Amino acid sequence: MAEKGKKSAKKKNAVNKKNPKIIEEEEALARLEAEQQQQQQQQQQQQQQQQQQQQQQQQQQQQQQQQQQQQQQQQQE
């Protein structure tokens, strides 16, 4: 029983003492994933801003059309 305990302890230590290269790779992957998430968030924000700008442009166009219609009505009177 004591030997089994020693073996499992050795295995745990082996897992805890990961190859430094593997640790570096995992950290690099984590950084890449974080960067990708940031980029996606920035893209989403840009898309939202573009949509807002489009909505504003549409509102301005509608206002211009209304003004033109009012002017035409005034001219007809």
From TrEMBL:
Region of interest: Disordered: 1-35
Compositionally biased spans, kind Basic residues: 7-20
Entry protein name: Uncharacterized protein
Organism of origin: Eimeria mitis
